[in-house]
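Chain and backbone:
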Amino acid sequence: MVRPPARREVRKMKLKTSTTALTFGFFVAVMHVVWMLMVYIGVAQTYLNWIFGIHLLSVQVRVLPFNLNTAITLVFFTFLIGYLVGWVFATVWNKVHKGN
């Protein structure tokens, strides 16, 4: 049987900043690729209406027609922002857990 790591072992775990940053960046980029695919196939408006409805919100939002340049720009910038957030997270994690 595999034993879970002790609390002290978990605190000593060091994150690789580049790997964590890439993981965050790819995660948010993939989420936005999925969103762009929903816009492209025409189900994004229905999805938004459903999401707002189950949150008891009535917001008038209109999904614009798909534009490849806009889609590429969105995915690119969300990757960059996700990368930055992941890098900052890993850096802060490593500094906070350095003395433990």
